Amino acid sequence: MKKKTTNTQESEKKYKANWKEKIKPYLYIAPAFVGIGLFTIYPVIKVLIWSFQKVNQLDTSKTKWVGMKNYSYLISNSAFQKTLLNTLIYTGGTLAIIMTCALILAFWLNKSQGHLTIFTQGAAFMPHVISSVSIALVFSMMMNPSFGLFNKVLTAIGLPASPWLTSSSTAMPSVVGVASWKAIGYYCLIIIGALQSISASIYEAASLDKAGVGVTLRKITIPMISPQLFFVIITMTIGSFKVFDTVRLLTDGGPNNATSVLVYYIYKQVFWESNIGRACAAGIVLLILVGILTIIYFKLLSKRVHYQ
Questions:
Q1: Residue 77 in this model has a pLDDT that exceeds 60
Q2: Residue 114: helix, strand or coil by DSSP?
Q3: Same domain, 126 and 88
Q4: What are the pLDDT digits (tens) for 230-246?
Q5: Where are the beta strands (DSSP E) in 28-179?
Q6: Do 260 and 114 contact (CB within 8 A), yes or no?
Q7: Which of 17, 180, 237, 260 is the most exposed place for a label (fewest CB within 10 A)?
Q8: What average pLDDT does the structure give for the chain?
Q9: How far is CA 197 from CA 200, 280, 290, in A?
């Protein structure tokens, strides 16, 4: 009986010890999960609930359940349709310009050496550090049709002046250009880090096999940095969909809603129209769009990402 009791006690001790070891990792990550729950999951659930309501924050008793009315309004509203199109144009434009320029700049800086290269890397990264407010104010002055620097340069070389931010046809390209200028350096440094992680022996083997520049780029360089490129595309797309400060400061969504994007539309619904429910519905649309694009990226591009 004593042996059985001893064995039972030992097994209980082992079980308690194992249980404590198993629960330790969850205790370590519990603070992070609490933060995610409070500041991410709960707000998303709250926004989803409000998107089906006509919200009155001053008197919650007057908040009414309206079902799909907020969503049906957005679908049929021409201003919201224009906003969706502007968001897609902005995202596509910034993605194309930033990826192209960042890749070219990264390949050039990776091959060159010396103090000038270090200075160029710092200069390329500098716009990312500068406040968006400062950048927007400086560019708005340089793009001023009357006394802006850009138009003075154009007229000096014999080209016609551009309306830049004051015309519906040139406002969105101008905003895309400013946003791209700010972000190119940041993504360029990410790609440079990926290029420098490639072993030189791989390129030596390629040169021994007499592989050309195009073949080396297509078969070695791009596949080797594909994880970083995939990360850049995902983060850049999500960041482009969330743009607000650049649009707010440069054009205020104008002229004629030519630069109004989704987050700015949500801002206007909350602070101008005081329509919380409609703003929440637009936020859910934004969440769905970003989710769909992320899934498409993973479906189309994840198979082409080569992890070392």
A1: yes
A2: coil
A3: yes
A4: 989 999 999 899 999 89
A5: 53-54, 64-65
A6: no
A7: 17
A8: 86
A9: 9, 43, 31
